[in-house]
Amino acid sequence: MVHTHQVGALFYGGPPARRLSVPVVHTEHGKHYDRSWRLRILARYSFAYANRYVGVASDVTEHAVARYVVCKRKTATIVNGVDIAKFTAYRSGDAVRKALSIPDTAPVVGTVGRLEPVKNQALLLRAFANVAEQLSDARLLIVGDGTQLETLGSLAGELGLGDRVHFTGYQADAAAYLGAMDVFCLTSDSEGLPLSLLEAMAVGVPVVASAVGGVPGVVRDDESGRLFPRGDIAAAAGAIKQMLVDRNLAHRFSREASKVVNQQFSLDTTAMAYDKLYEAVAAGK
């Protein structure tokens, strides 16, 4: 059995697997096929070598079918999962706060992810600037690296945020930083089912997220977190402020989010789903 992730791996791995009569399972993590007709042609060619196409959210699976890059009968949806035990071990972020000289009492908004245009951390900076006008001791923690690091640093300066924003760069153990956050914010313009969101929920950090891709399937607005329309700075800022000011509400969301991840998005649940899929594909089903 060969299992590929993203179309490039399938493009190169699919043909030799076919020649050797080895079945192929392919997983896609996002919606990519509105960008160019060339990419759609590449995907159609590549997906012909996959016995089964898996989307990490129903939104991702439906996108591929709607763009005619894969036939529906070959598709399945298996959601991402996280190692619950690993992330519940990071309840305290005291060491991270101390290392970054963030006062114990300072409210911290944070995010973890690649610093790329699609993740739209620029929106987070602008929303945080709005929050900081009312909460002068608030800090923003951005964990990750990417092509937008310099641009985002410049924007933070233009917004007058100064030392209130902490860019940590890439962190191999980003989970340790989640415990230092009072609110986790995901501002992406497009997503599949982001692991960083599931990890934050597993740690017990209240979440604010853009209602894109598979996110609404994880976060129920006003039940396990807050959702805002894609690109809406004012709505994001309002949700963040609500979480920081109303700590009872934030704690309620935190408890519900932890329950959701434990019940529906554990790594064990994902592994069992793939195990059943592998058995079916191996049997020619």
From TrEMBL:
Coiled coil: none annotated. InterPro entries: Glyco_trans_1, Glyco_trans_4-like_N, Glycosyltransferase_grp1. Residues 96-259 form the Glycosyl transferase family domain. Pfam families: Glyco_transf_4, Glycos_transf_1. The keyword Glycosyltransferase applies. GO terms for molecular function: hexosyltransferase activity. SUPFAM superfamilies: UDP-Glycosyltransferase/glycogen phosphorylase. Keywords: Glycosyltransferase, Transferase. Residues 2-85 form the Glycosyltransferase subfamily 4-like N-terminal domain. Signal peptide: none annotated. The keyword Cell membrane does not apply. PANTHER family: SULFOQUINOVOSYL TRANSFERASE SQD2. This is GDP-mannose-dependent alpha-(1-6)-phosphatidylinositol monomannoside mannosyltransferase.
